[in-house]
Amino acid sequence: MRSLLWFLLAIVAALVLASLVAYPAWLAVHVAHPGWRIDKVAGRLFDLFALLGLLGVTRHLDLANLRAWGFGLPRRAWLRQFGIGLAAGVATMLPATFAMLALGVRTVAPGFSPALLGQALLVGLGSGLAVGLLEEPVFRGLIQGAVIRDSRRPIVGILLVALFFAAVHFLAQQHIANEAVTPSSGLAILTTVADKLLSPEGIADGFAALFAVGLLLGLVAWWTGSVALSMGLHCGWVWMMRATLITTHYDAHGPNAGLIYADHGYVGWLSFAWTLVLLGVLVSNRRRLGAWRDPLVRAIRR
Fold first, then answer.
1. Prediction pTM value
2. Among residues 4, 11, 302, 298, which one has the least CA distance to residue 171?
């Protein structure tokens, strides 16, 4: 798994470097943008350093081409699969949202109105497109593609990337108020990340849900030979999730509160169970997905 180790090294290096530079960068940014928290600055630095690191790894592993990022399909076929994935993502996320409302885990926001719903859908769509367009080419295209090429058993690579995908989502969950910032705040963010990942019992519900999502998206990308369908699914899921978070409130004291990972407000045991159901449906229809692979990919696979 040489490729995965290179990508992991790039992410860890970006995290450490962002933590070290966070405080001086926050001091510089705070003059023009007093409202920016240091954790937000650290997050932007991490994104920048991670991108630079990933680009360096792609050059080192000779992956600097569109097919390596999961964009091998002709444009018309790619857009068709993306559209189908987007519609399927919306359709399969709504039952989870309705289940949360029915179980009282989330309740409709007091100020709910058609205007708020419209705003939530617009913001959710923007978030969905941003997340899907960024994460799928990186995780299911670049990283998973490289890891699968290194592995004799593709499923092992898909599982490892799903674990990596889930872990990365816990890198930016520490919030520090401006009045509490000290020169060591950047390192405090790094310590919090380590504490979360080294104490799995505290994040088990959120981690399990994200791992299942990563596994499902990984299988979709592998069986179709591109990130078009998985990107559409990811966009649709984030779209509905974000809209739900805006128009509803999480009841942390309700009898069913444990069905959701409290630090996130949506993913958790409930979404994990629903994703397993979707995985079962996906596996039973995997031959249909295989027919969507483009001729060049099918020829290589034979």
1. 0.87
2. 11
